[in-house]
Amino acid sequence: MKVTKFLYNSNLAKGTGLINETLTLIAFYEKNDTKVSFLNRCISQNILNKSTEKRTKDIITLVFYPRYWNDTGNVIPYLKKLRENGLSLEGMRSLMLYYTAKANPVLKDFIFELVEINNHKKIQSETARNFLLQAMSDYKVPLWSDSIIKRVSSYLISCLKDFDLMNIEGHFKTNYPIQTVINYLIHEFHFQGKSDAQIVKVEMWKLFGLTNYEVIGEIEKLSFKGNFIFQYSGQILNIGWKYKNMDQLIENEYR
Questions:
Q1: 46 — alpha (psi -120 to 50), left (phi > 0) or beta?
Q2: How many CA atoms lie within 13 A of 182 on its CB side?
Q3: How much is the pLDDT for 119?
Q4: Alpha-carbon distance 186 to 75, whole Å?
Q5: Alpha-carbon distances, residue 241 vs 46, 205, 228 (angstroms)
Q6: What CA–CA distance (Å, rounded) separates 196 from 217?
Q7: Residue of 234, 242, 238 whose CA lies nearest to 197
Q8: Residues 6+ apart with CB under 8 A from 13
Q9: What is the rounded distance in angstroms from the CA atom of residue 197 to the CA atom of residue 205?
Q10: Rounded distance, CA 58 to CA 15, Å?
Q11: Are 254 and 81 in contact (CB under 8 A)?
Q12: Which among 11, 22, 178, 20 has a CA at the least distance from the CA of 105?
């Protein structure tokens, strides 16, 4: 029997945005850590101040690792260096949003839908519930019970709050990332093998409300600071990259 692989899951229920815990874990990480050694140190020192060992283990293995240390690589050393060299909480939150949405398509698509709608309506649990019901109709999730839908809806809203995507009135908003974050992301996309033209069109820019035109404008601004050589004719975009990997970028641009 063929097993259906659904696009969405309920993993957000394990941690939502997890802002403070993520900052703590990133700071606690050491260069030669393996997943096992890192987990054991976190548990033995109760670094997250959780009441049970199981809760600490669940946060790290089911939330932290899938976002920041997964099959595509380990970005914790880069985030640690950025933070140590003064990246603001605002900047760190933007990167956490990116990695959390990347690891949780249900959150990514929910935010994308809100960006597209942009009708300034107040975001409520019913907003998330309707999104999930449509996802069930589109076979992106299994036939969840009402209780699971209610839980995941709640955590979607919590994530919006954690990542500062709702204003004080409860309306959805996007946050323009600072240039340090944009520079980091365009290099990540480049090192993933995307062409210069593809970088501009990466769908994840929508998390920040950025259009293709605005991304090009930000790349041009960064080129003025000597981050790379930029050429754009209105149709063809070429970037002269200075660094061969993320380690070189972090070492030279984020000291």
A1: left
A2: 23
A3: 63
A4: 15
A5: 42, 20, 5
A6: 14
A7: 238
A8: 151, 152, 155
A9: 14
A10: 9
A11: yes
A12: 11
Q: How many residues does the chain have?
A: 255
Q: Which residues contact 42 (CB under 8 A, 6 or more apart)?
A: 25, 28, 48, 56, 60
Write the burial class of residue 117 (CB in 10 Å: 0-12 exposed, 13-18 middle, 19+ buried). exposed
Coil, helix or strand at residue 128: helix
CA-nearest of 156, 154, 164 to 91 is 164
The model's pLDDT over 140-195, given as tens digits with 9 standing for 90+, comes to 988 889 999 999 999 999 999 999 999 989 999 999 999 999 999 999 999 999 99
CB atoms near residue 85 (< 10 Å): 12
Segment (H or E) for 229? strand 229-232
